[in-house]
Structure formats: structure tokens, C-alpha cells
């Protein structure tokens, strides 16, 4: 067990660089419509921002943890990082699984490695819905929204000096990894890179972890906090047929045109 709540007490300000590639592929090319070109021609709001060291306390647990433990993050403390991309960053998703969680992936005498996952979206613009067209229970405004599948990140801390060695937060580069919504019209798109990255102040060359789980195990632990169905032992159709024949059990088949385990379609 370790208490990380005060681990960054000596951390100096840290410059974080933002990278945001344009949309590279889409299903319906909604972003290319003349009225949408400017709306979806996006780039970082702040290419470089300096954060105070204590801002990264947003990713630390409030109580003692051990390797593999998962804790919930305060979205109000995390969203300011995403506002470096766009000031319309919000954790209040219209649909889907909201939240942010972190996991202690590895620990040594000198270092702590934390993985985290955030679900958020961006309101790019709004416009009022005429009262004559509005339902009683409807939001009075329509929104143009940019909805990433998730953000996955890492925070590496030097426990001896109390400073940050490495920080990254990125949209996984999987096609399709973003939904865009233009005042009611939707499209699935691919953004090759959307990342916050801090140049390490001091990175260990070959850390010998006293306790650790793999990056895949940490990813899995975080995924389970968002989706109960992630507990299901999914099988390919071929494996399901083989198992059904061996056990004489029926097959429950699910057909999806996108991944289930994130917030893109």
C-alpha cells in the first residue's frame, strides 16, 4: 500500500504540448459540407500551456492504494486539461458512460506509474431551438459536438523528488474514434492524433518495478469501471459455434457496427 496524495508536493510547473490532427476519414463527410468546414477545422486552443505541479493532483488517489487498484477522478479537476484542446470541453455527456478513473499500474521504490481513462466531449457551437419546434422536456439549444471514443493517459512520478517524469493523454488512434454531431446530424470520423504530451523532466532508463500489472491489465481494470458488459467472455463466431457444439448450449449473438467498449459508434 502507498499514499500518493502528497506525491507531487515538490513538482515544478510543467509545459504540456497539445496536438490535434484534422479529420482524416469519415462515413458521410459531414465535416466537408460548406457550412461545417470552419466548425470542424479544429486545432488546439492552446498549443502549449504551462500547468502548476499541483494541477496534476487531479490524477492522484485520495487514500492509500496498491498496484491494480482503481479510483474515481474528479471531472471538475480533469476537464481543465482537455480545455487546452477546446474551451467547450465537458464531462457532461449527452449519451453514454460518463466519468474518469485511474489505476496504479506499477510501483517501485523510486517511481509510481498511473494509467487513467477519461470520457468527455466538446461543445463546438450552440444555437437556440425555436420555441414552436421545441418539446416540453427538450433542451432549449442544439449543439454541435465532437465526441471522442475515450482518452487514455499515463502519469509517471518520481517518488524521491516529488516531480512528474512523464505525462500523456491521448485519443486512441483507432478508426473510427470520434463521433461528430452537427445540430442533429451525425457522422463517425477518424482523427489520427489528439494528444497532450509533456516532455519528461527526468525519465528512468530501466526501472525495476517491485510490483506491476501490464498496460493491458490496467486498461481492462479501467474498462470494467465503465461497462458491466465488459465482464462477458466474448467469443468469435467460430469459437462460439465450437463451444456450443461441445456444451450443447445455444448461442447468443451480438452484431455491432462499431466497438462496444468506448463512446464512439
Brief descriptors of the model:
single chain; 265 residues; mainly beta; nine-stranded antiparallel sheet; six-stranded antiparallel sheet; 3 helices
Can you give a write-up of this model?
The protein is mainly beta. It is built from three helices and 15 strands. It has helices at residues 75-82, 215-226, 237-247; strands at residues 14-20, 25-26, 48-51, 70-72, 89-90, 99-107, 111-119, 121-128, 141-148, 151-158, 163-170, 178-182, 185-190, 194-198, 211-212. Strands 1, 3, 4, 6, 7, 10, 11, 14 and 15 form a nine-stranded antiparallel sheet that branches. Strand 10 and strand 11 (163-170) form a beta hairpin. The chain is globular. It starts with 13 loop residues before the first strand and ends in an 18-residue tail after the last helix.
Q: Identify the overall geometry.
A: globular
Low-confidence stretches: none
How much beta, percentage-wise? Answer: 25-35%
The tally of beta strands, per DSSP, is 15
Largest sheet: 9 strands, antiparallel
Cα-atom Rg, whole angstroms? 21 Å
Global mean pLDDT: 89
Terminal Cα span: 39 Å
Question: Nutshell version of this structure?
Answer:
Helices cover 12% and strands 32% of the residues. The chain is mainly beta and 265 residues long.
